[in-house]
Amino acid sequence: AGDTTADTIGKKFAGVTHPDFLVLRIECKKGDQKLAWRMYDHVTAGESAMSRTTGYTTAAVAMLLAQKKFAEPGVHAPEKLGDYKSLVDAVISDLAERGVKVEELAAENG
After folding, report:
1. What is the average pLDDT across 101-107?
2. Which residues contact 90 (CB under 8 A, 6 or more apart)?
3. Rg of the chain, C-alpha, whole Å
């Protein structure tokens, strides 16, 4: 009585027997060109894959801003950084240094 959905799922899929793992496909389109990446991560030293991938990505972008590698004035959606391959590569490199795997998939045209 009184069990929440989270309680029920937690009992059935305990983290000890079902370790945290993340697989994410990122897709974007600009004009006729489509780009995609696949990201993989897993729990490490008590940090969940979700916290690692969101936190490390945010930290990598904050470092780019602090280093003035993106200095366009105004407020921008995060996707704006995707206009600059060097910034995308810097974020992916930063993630790789922390053990998050990002694989670039074949580009598509049309």
Report:
1. 90
2. 60, 64, 69
3. 18
In angstroms, the Cα distances linking 48 to 1, 58, 90, 97 are 29, 15, 23, 17
Quick check: helix, strand or coil at residue 91?
helix
Count of residues in the chain:
110
Nearest residue to 102 via CA among 45, 59, 53: 53
pLDDT tens digit string along 50-65?
Answer: 999 999 999 999 999 9
Flag whether pLDDT at 19 surpasses 80.
no
Q: Which residues have CB under 8 Å from 105's CB, separation 6+?
A: 35, 36, 37, 38
d(CA 78, CA 108): 22
| pLDDT of the residue at 110 | 62
